[in-house]
Amino acid sequence: MSSPHSSSNIGISITPKVGLQASDVLGSHFDSVEDAELWYNNYARMLGFGVRKDDMRRGKKSGRITIRHWVCHFEGVKDERQSQNCSRVQEPRPITRTGCRASFRVNYDDSLGKYIAKEFRPEHNHHLASTNEVHLIRSHRKVTDAELAQAKALKHIGVKTCQFMDYMADQVEGPQNLRFTRKDMQNTLDASTRAEVGDSDSDTTIAYFAAKSEHDPGLCFEYTLDDENRLRNLFWADCVARYDYQCFGDVLAFNATYKTNAYHKPLVTLVGTNHHFRTMVFDFALLADETIDSYTWLLQTFLSTMGNRKPMSVITDGDKAMSKAIKTVFTGCIHRFCCWHLERNAQANLKNEDFTRKFRDLMLTPMTVAEFETQWSAVVAEFALEHHAWVPKMYSKRCNWAEAYLRGTFFAGMRSTQRCESMNTYLSRFVQQKLKLYEFVRQIDRALRNIRTTETSDEFKTKYSTPVLRTHLQSLEKHAAQLFPLRVFSKVIDEMLREGAVIEVKTVKAVDTALYIVTEFGTPTTYWNVIHNLQENHIQCSYQMMESVGLPCRHMFHVLKVEQIAKIPDNMVLRRWTKKAKEHNTCGTTKPEVDTDVSEVARFSALSAACNKMCYNVAKNVEAYANALVEINRLTLTYEQQSKRDDLPNKKLRM
């Protein structure tokens, strides 16, 4: 039996008609159960009701579906015993069943090899949904593979579900034209993530790093397991991070105050500063806890990854476990406590703003050890704190926080873990506390890629721009512009400008050495000694800015001016602050090559961009719109069929 609605391509030529009668449908042929279901679902959507699967039977020998029955979503009645149960904790759901008998059934015909419509009841006993309501019916809500791919691409760059739902709704002129709700999209995304992650989140994360290492041979990742074979600690550093550490790993800052993942593991970020005075990340680590053993494992793994090169100095928030691990692993390294944390600690313990202000001055003001000891005793006596438990405790650790004891140690201008705190704030834009480990690691990697684009921008500005000379030491300034990147150059210029306030008090010259005793306008009682080795053109200042920051101070520039020296001597130029800082590398690591294999994600993004341009132009003309729609449908059908032949639907699109 045939019918006007019969076709082997149900999705193309069969168009459900509103107001169909049983005689219009009975006897229609369908190539598969899916084709029959698609037809009835389209009919239901046009008419304004939902569809539920009902009875199904299979052949005993073939296993093929022989009977398939669909009913209206209002079919049946609710069991009254459920609503009358007084012991229910939750409020019963509203009644949605009306006993509607509308239905559709197909039977398989062995002789034809097709499914034949054997039952069609069009009558309903309830109101039908309007066009603006039909998208809320469950059977008509489905997120397609294309929509899911687009949503995953947007989610991958941090766009929230509500935001890309608005975007998708705008594309189809309103949310009523979408075939899914926000909850449907969120559920589909969650299911897709679970499918990607698999049974074990940690196994998937390790597999992710293993796959990534194929494109980045310099990637190092290490992990430990607990007694129950669960992931305990995780460490990773890519080739770029290892390369950067060899260039700028003289000073290290880290803390573990950032917890934002589903397992509440502390994230430890080890950072430094590059030759543009920008924060750079050397590695990330997720630890099981903040104990001495965990930090010791982290630092030992870090050293092994970085070719056993220890930093000159480390800055932390003063955590006891961190301090003991640093003392054990980074032997000979100078450990400094964060001045910001100490200042807060002083206020919390003493609750005296005047003391906190003077404590800060003692902590940060350059002075001799003798001057510090005298002023410390005076401050303690002034506030009568001789017997306060916190005061002698901090005094015993003065070598870790007082500038008087830390002068001459290189810290690259850092005195706090502010760079770590800023990094944590930046990372909060990418990660959320509910993220599983696999998603968390991928988002951290995405954030790291964005951070590194800043260095590219700084390099571009330095390479293709020349600063305007603005000091009275123009020959020295011109030489500095040739040596230093722009952001470092600006700090050097500040010292040149401040040279104008330097006053020469006394000069003592010998055969090959000159001693300059200088002071500054406004501080007549403070003196600095500058020694100039005339034979080697070597200049050293007791201010020790060169030793602690790595940049020449105003007192050194004053001697250059007096001696009529037009270029900055070599001992006043630290390579790590120059434009050539990254040209020298000692660990043998190189930056990873760009993967030339275009990924599925990249192809998807490229095609999306190309389609956006086409849609923009086509939408301006009605005829062009109609022609484009026909062509798009043709291409969609062609590649859907090709996808089925290539068995691509089972291949996951990893975003």
How would you briefly describe this protein structure?
The protein has helices at residues 10-13, 22-25, 33-47, 80-83, 145-156, 161-171, 182-197, 201-215, 239-248, 292-305, 320-329, 339-350, 353-364, 369-382, 390-395, 403-406, 418-427, 437-463, 474-483, 486-498, 545-548, 554-562, 600-618, 622-645, and strands at 29-30, 51-58, 65-72, 103-109, 114-121, 220-225, 231-237, 251-258, 267-273, 279-286, 313-316, 334-337, 502-509, 513-520, 523-533, 538-541. With 655 residues, the protein is an alpha+beta fold.
Question: Care to describe what's here?
Answer:
This protein is of the alpha+beta class and 655 residues long. The protein has helices spanning 10-13, 22-25, 33-47, 80-83, 145-156, 161-171, 182-197, 201-215, 239-248, 292-305, 320-329, 339-350, 353-364, 369-382, 390-395, 403-406, 418-427, 437-463, 474-483, 486-498, 545-548, 554-562, 600-618, 622-645, and strands at residues 29-30, 51-58, 65-72, 103-109, 114-121, 220-225, 231-237, 251-258, 267-273, 279-286, 313-316, 334-337, 502-509, 513-520, 523-533, 538-541. The strands form three sheets. It has a seven-stranded mixed β-sheet with strand order 6-7-10-9-8-11-12, sandwiched between helices. A five-stranded antiparallel β-sheet has the order 1-5-4-3-2, with helices on one face. α12 (339-350) runs antiparallel to α13. The longest helix is centred in the last third of the chain and has 27 residues, at 437-463. It is elongated and about 120 Å long. The model is unreliable at 1-17, 592-599 and 648-655 (pLDDT under 50). This is Protein FAR1-RELATED SEQUENCE.
